[in-house]
Amino acid sequence: MHHFAYRDGSLHAEGVDLRRIAAEVGTPVYVYSTATIERHYKLFAAAMKKAAGKAHVFYAMKANGNLGVLKTLGALGAGIDTVSEGEVRKALAAGIPPEKIVFSGVGKSEQELRFAVETGIYQVNIESESELDLLSKVASSLGKRQEAVFRVNPDIGAGGHAKITTGSSENKFGVSFEEVGRLYSRAANMPGVRIMGLAVHIGSQIREIDAFEAAYSKMVALVGDLKGEGHRVDRLDLGGGLGIPYDIPKTFDYGPGLIEAYAEMVGRVTKGLDVELGFEPGRLIVGNAGLLLTRVLHLNPRPTKQFLVVDAAMNDLVRPAMYEAYHEIWPVAEPAIGSPEIAYDVVGPICESGDTFTTGRALPQLKQNDLVAFMTAGAYGASMSSTYNQRLLVAEVMVKGDDYAVTRPRQSYEELIGTDRLPGWFA
Ligand SMILES: *Cc1c(COP(=O)(O)O)cnc(C)c1O
Questions:
Q1: Same domain, 212 and 107
Q2: 351 a catalytic residue
Q3: Staple 11 to which of 278, 321, 332, 354, CB 3.0 to 4.6 Å?
Q4: C-beta 135 within 6 A of ligand 1
């Protein structure tokens, strides 16, 4: 479930009227509900603990890396899954202890690995033999031995869209199944790494438990094989990717159904394995804890279409343009029951046709300056935003009860222009 609902005819985030945020912070603006983030984390962590006993949850920060979000999760005991040095640094800045940080990603540089090893992070998820060599070299030069796991590509593709599938052997991620034993043996003689186990992550926005089960069953068999060969396998990191409903009705109650089904499957498949399990949920924790609040700039009626031009654009929320993603659109002013609907093409101001949020969407009649919310925008929304078309980096707000705080002020034009440097030859 989430904590966005109509009260007295206006959409609220917890106790705060979105009209107030729009008036005080401006639009477009992301609005996150602390209660929703906390609820989803607690549900997930409790279910995994119950299913697995030893379970570590590392929130995948690339879904939403706002410091306020990280602090909120850190206070609940969450670890963080990172995919760049910037993310490791941001996790530290949010007060996450190094021993709760995992570093994943297919292209870690020498500098990034050095920073991670110096910081003393919990685990590096190694994605290739080349990276194994580099990590050992870097760590041993620092007189350290870094704990690490091999990310294995299970050759199981799944996910809501081709661009977010990662577990097929056609994808760039991980080492292949056949290679793991050999790499384990090689690593045993390397001075800078200590291999603790395995990791897998098959994709994002996966709603079919069967896909996870197929991948995890292969991993469990692999753990058995490796142990049989005398290798040490203490950890199995099962990745993230559990999907969320985007087509939520206004009375939507998310409930723990999918989380419970996932937990039951994990418990069953890993029963008796005697490893510590890790999880890296991102979208599941923050996805429907956020919305993007935007204002109608113009109505542009055409003979065959009705365009609704809003002040948010693909640089603020790229998911529809990039993944053909669906977002519910809720007017902030509660529509009267039975009020007539119009089919709108909802578009942003950016100068390309890809800047389209939806086409032919039936919505209550809207007019200039009305506020609308793109729902379920807490994951891969602000974290993927940019300044394309020299638009200001979007603002972010966190709500807690009747209170709210700006957790990323809207960028200023001075900041936008000031990041560039003129070449000396113009002086
Ligand atoms: C993106 C990613 C995640 C999180 O995926 P979600 O679909 O947001 O849960 C977890 N682990 C790794 C390695 C990732 O790249």
A1: yes
A2: yes
A3: 332
A4: no
**The pLDDT of residue 247:** 84
User: For residue 321, what pLDDT band results from cuts at 50, 70 and 90?
Assistant: very high
181 C-alpha vs ligand 1 centroid, how far in Å? 25
Which amino acid is it at 25? Answer: V
Q: Is 284 in the pocket of ligand 1 (CB under 6 A)?
A: yes
Residue 341 token pair: 């609907």
Report the separation in Å between the CA atom of 279 and the middle of ligand 1, taken as the mean of its atom positions.
9
Residue 96: both structure tokens together: 């996450």
Does 427 fall in a domain? no
Candidates 117, 102, 97; CA nearest to 57 is 102
In CATH, what number is assigned to the domain containing residue 154?
3.20.20.10
Q: Are residues 213 and 277 in the same domain?
A: yes
- The pTM (predicted TM-score) of the whole model is 0.96
Does the beta carbon of 87 sit less than 6 angstroms from any atom of ligand 1?
Answer: no
Residue 341 lies in a domain: yes
Residues 9 and 119 reside in one and the same domain: no
- Determine the pLDDT at residue 86: 98
Same domain, 16 and 157: no
Range ranked top by mean pLDDT from 163-177, 237-251, 374-388: 374-388
Q: Which residues pair with 400 in a beta bridge?
A: 403
Residues 277 and 314 grouped into a single domain: no
Task: Count structural domains, the chain.
Answer: 2
Domain membership of residue 424 (yes or no) is no
Distance of CA 30 to the CA centre of its chain: 15
Examine the domain organization and report whether 83 and 203 are in the same domain.
yes
Q: Kind and range of the H or E element at 69?
A: helix 67-75
Report whether 170 belongs to an annotated binding site.
Answer: no
What is the Cα–Cα distance from 293 to 406, expressed in whole angstroms? 14
Residue 28: cis peptide before it, omega within 30 degrees of 0: yes
Which residue range(s) make up the domain with 96? Answer: 34-285
Based on the fold, state whether residues 196 and 50 are members of the same structural domain: yes
Contact criterion met (CB below 8 Å) for 82 and 49? no
Determine, yes or no, domain membership for 64. Answer: yes
